[in-house]
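Suppose you are handed a protein chain with no further information: no name, no annotation, nothing but its sequence. What can you learn? This example shows the usual starting point.
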Amino acid sequence: MKSMHTSLSFIVCLSVLSPSEGAETPAPVRSAPLDSLAADISMLGFIPSGGEFLVLAASNGWFGLISEVRITPVDAAGDDPSLGLLDGEDTYYGTAPWSQEGDIVLVTAPEHSCYPSGVPCSVIPGTTFSFVIMGFGRLVKPSVALGSPGLNVVDINPDSSGTLSLTLDDPGVYWVEVMQHTDRGPSIELLFPIVSGGNVNDVFSGSVPVPRSDASSSGEVLEEINGLRESLSLPELQRDPVLDSLASIRAGNLALSGTLDHIDTETGSLEELLPERTGTYGENIGRGRGYQEAWSMIMTSPFHLQTCISPEYARVGMAGAVETDDYRWQLVLVQVFTYEGTGK
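A reasonable first move is to predict its three-dimensional structure. Written in structure tokens, the prediction is:
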């Protein structure tokens, strides 16, 4: 009998949230934190990836999801990106000049289902602090996880008002993640960092590390997963060719549909592909500018990382597929985990 233990997706750079069918699309709102983030990207001269990007966003006061960051010419209709550069699902945006030729940095974000209020982007180790997750009570079966620099992942529970109190004992970057369970499967609603004993400059200098990958293939991703497991005295995951083929089917379907949903009427689900006797299984889905970024973001997410380092799994399959949209591309990375394999 199959049993889904973990099945999670993470969105990198492109949001799959969309307004309700038939609803009017609200006018986009210019955001001061996103303007500030765009200005920092312009000053750096490149778009950071993975955890570094999320730390930079938090240092500018933005703790929500990001839809996209791109360098683009100013629209011919004028210098306001809301006149033609934003997608219909974007609610917030910020810009900054990029070049003397008139290009701009454009950062867009979707509407929040929940949002942290009063959260510090950096703290002194051992300090107790509190913040509120606004809208937490409206989420469906929500869960909150805290990931530590030492790869520990613990569940944390806000009180009835959505307030969380934390004490971060060790220096490094901690990650707070909020998930809800929808009819399309688990959905990540928030992921943001809190730097303990440092700041954004320490992260970019490398003195405070964040999850980072050098992988350029699924095989190298597996090597890095097993490196993490070895550091925790866990046995290596064994690659399973049948799970590889299922991951390839899932990645191709998701890239074609442009979604990251675990359960969908068009793309189906992993459960439909697995043999009946598979037992407990997990699925991670990530998206990014290649294996390096997609896997870095999976490592950054406590819920996804928990799947990768779970002692409940012994076998894994992985595959990537390229999704293209308006001359832009993203790699969709799917990881499938089981304990005994598929039995085939």
